[in-house]
Amino acid sequence: MNLPPPAPGGSPSNGLVLVVEDERHIADIQRLYLAREGFGVHVESDGAAGLAAARRMSPVAIVLDIGLPGVDGITFCRTLRDAGDWTPILLVTARGEETDRILGLELGADDYLVKPFSPRELVARVKTVLRRGPGLGADTVVRLGRLSLDLAAHRVLRDDEPVELTATEFGLLAHLVRHPGRVFTRDQLLAQVWGYPGYRDTRMVDVFVSQLRAKLGDASPLRTVRGVGYSAADPGAAGTKGSPS
Ligand code: CA
Predict the structure, then answer these.
(1) Measured in angstroms, how far is the CA atom of residue 209 from the centroid of ligand 1?
(2) What spacing in Å lies between the alpha carbon of 22 and ligand 1's midpoint?
(3) What integer pLDDT is reported at residue 12 of this predicted model?
(4) Does residue 33 contact residue 122 with C-beta atoms inside 8 Å?
(5) Cα–chain center distance at 136
(6) In angstroms, what is the span from residue 116 Cα to ligand 1's centroid?
(7) Own/partner long-range contacts of 98-106 (Cβ < 8 Å, ≥24 apart)
(8) Could you give the domains of the chain?
(9) Which of 104, 127, 237, 238 is deepest in the core (most CB within 10 A)?
(10) Alpha helices of the chain — where are they, by DSSP H?
(11) Least confident of 18-32, 115-129, 179-193
(12) Which long-range contacts (CB under 8 A, 24 or more apart) does 100-103 make?
């Protein structure tokens, strides 16, 4: 294949992306296009080596195939999150792997891409998960009910105790909490939090809302507005409208 030229300047200034992919030609394309965008890229072709590389190299993001020899992508996600590693994960899935995709999101992946994908789409997704990651955003602290969100540090405190959230969980919560009382449709949330137009599977939003509720418990400000979408309100405030379930 004809390879496009490397990025001008060539230095991987955007940080290291770990690609875990057993199909060589797909890994080559991922490496190429991410490198052109100024990312350093390290490729591993099986899950166990990928996990070791994630621990060793502290990448800024991981592009993770679900179907891998040895440790599969789902186990990879679970292992990493169980170890308290919240590096953004972009799952790469084949058509027909919908159940695995949802499971992967529930186990802490941030987003997914369905094969075949365009390299442009891959790059856009990686940039989006990184935008939701630590170190970006305003240097303000937003409070709602018993929650306090540090938008710069991407930290959430519930009653002054830290709650561990993935980058995407944080991004969704922050978006709703920054607009208390405002109702967003699932399509709006996909566009505004994930950065996609509305063609994506809106159940993804529901998966992340239920994960946030599980982690935040009765301090969760997330409200279901039936037939519309979601909003955030102080669960302890009198007269707040909407269903808590
Ligand atoms: Ca594979």
Answers:
(1) 29
(2) 5
(3) 57
(4) yes
(5) 14
(6) 12
(7) 100/66, 100/73, 100/74, 101/66, 102/203, 102/207, 103/74, 104/66, 104/73, 104/74, 104/77, 105/204, 105/207, 105/208, 106/207, 106/211
(8) 16-131 (3.40.50.2300), 141-232 (1.10.10.10)
(9) 104
(10) 24-36, 47-57, 73-82, 98-106, 119-131, 167-177, 186-189, 203-216
(11) 179-193
(12) 100/66, 100/73, 100/74, 101/66, 102/203, 102/207, 103/74
Expressed in angstroms and rounded, the spacing between residue 46 Cα and the centre of ligand 1 is: 9
Give 101 Cα–ligand 1 centroid separation in angstroms.
13
Question: Which is more confidently placed, 138 or 99?
Answer: 99
Which pLDDT tens digit goes with each residue over 217-240? 999 999 999 999 999 998 887 544
CA of 107 to the centre of ligand 1 (A): 19
CA of 240 to the centre of ligand 1 (A): 47
- Stretch 122-145: mean pLDDT, rounded? 75
Question: pLDDT by residue (tens digit) across 71-82?
Answer: 999 999 999 988
Check pLDDT > 70 for residue 9.
no
Q: How many whole angstroms from 26 Cα to the centroid of ligand 1?
A: 9
The answer to whether residues 169 and 208 touch, using CB atoms and an 8 Å cutoff, is yes
11: tokens are 């230095």
10: which 2 tokens? 């060539």
Closest CA to 28 of 61, 63, 53, 56: 63
The set of residues, in sequence order, having a beta carbon less than 8 Å from that of 220 and lying 6+ positions away, is 212, 213, 235, 244
CB 212 within 8 A of CB 220: yes
**Structural tokens at position 4:** 């496009």
**For the segment 46-73, what is each residue's pLDDT rounded down to a tens digit?**
999 999 999 888 888 999 999 999 899 9
